[in-house]
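I hope you will forgive my troubling you with a question about protein structure. The matter concerns a single protein, recorded as an amino acid sequence and a row of C-alpha cells. Please examine both parts with care and let me know of anything in them that strikes you as inconsistent. Here, with my thanks, is the record as I have it:
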Amino acid sequence: MTLAETQALFHGLVTGDSPPDGTALERCFRGTDELPAAERVAIYRNMYLDRLVDALRETFPNLARFLGAERFAALGQAYLAEHPSEHHDVGRIGRRLAAFLREYPDPERPDLAALAELEWTRNVSFFAPDTRSDGSGQSEFGSLGGLGSSRTRPGALDSGPGSLHNGGRDELGGVVVESPRFSANTRH
C-alpha cells in the first residue's frame, strides 16, 4: 500500500467517510493486545468529531448556552452526520445549521433556527472583508439585511417568558429538537 493510499484510508476512517475495513486497517496501522489498531484509529475519529462540535460551539455560543453542553453536543453530532465538513476551514462547518434546525424544528421553540441564523450571520459579517470603497473605514454588511425577512417571524427572539433575550432571568423550559439521529426533549 502506498503512502497516498494509507493517507486516504486514514482520512476516510477518521472523518467517517469509509467504513472500517479490518484487513486494511490492521495492514496499515499497528495495534497491541491492549489497544488494537481499530481502537487507536477510533481515538482520532472521536477527537475529530469533538473538534468539529467545539467549532460549532464557538460559532453558536448562545445556542450552545441555551441548549446546555449535552444537548448541544447531541445536536452537533446529528448535524455533522447529515452535513459533514466539506472544507478545511472548520469555521465554515455551521453554515447549514439554521436550515437543519428549520428542517427539524422544536415545536416549543421554533426560534432556535432564527437564533442559529442570527449567530451565523454575525459570524459571516465578522470575517467579511470591508466592502466600502469610500475610505470611511466602515463596512457594509449586505447579509444582515435578510434578518428581518419572511424566513423568521418578527420578534422571534423575544417572545415572552423564557425567551432567549431575557438574560436567563426566567426559566427557559424544555427544548425539543428532533431529527432521525437527535432527540433532546428533556427539560432543564
Notes: The chain is about 45% helix and 0% strand. The helical segments are 3-15, 22-28, 37-59, 61-67, 69-82, 97-103, 112-127.
